[in-house]
Amino acid sequence: MKHAAAASLVLCLFLQTGCSSGLTAPLEMTTLNPGDDHQTIARHYLHEARLSRQQVEELSNQAVVYERLFGQESDWVSGTRLLVQFYQEVAREQDRLAELHMRLGKDRSSK
Predict the structure, then answer these.
(1) Contacts within 8 Å (CB) and 24+ apart, 5-8
(2) Alpha carbon distance 81, 42 (integer Å)
(3) pLDDT band per the 50, 70, 90 thresholds, residue 87
(4) For the chain, what is the largest distance between any 2 Cα atoms, rounded to a whole number of angstroms?
């Protein structure tokens, strides 16, 4: 039961914080075709990484508040900390993808 409550909390917090980036036109992010605009894709990933780090900061602050309200062992605290870990991992992956596309863009322009 305790894990189900934590999972529900994580889902609610995820939905509450949102996950849209506000882009108007979708970018093709799966192809590494030299004809693609890798610098634009890299900027997109950097922007998304920045948003994920904002989520980390906001959720870390929420975890502190929840700890004061409900105690250190609370499902609220553990669920929020799980979200912090998730967004940290997402930011690292988005940074990695941005670096990849920056390299691909430089390789393409140097040819």
Answers:
(1) 5/75, 6/75, 6/78, 6/79, 6/82, 7/79
(2) 28
(3) very high
(4) 59
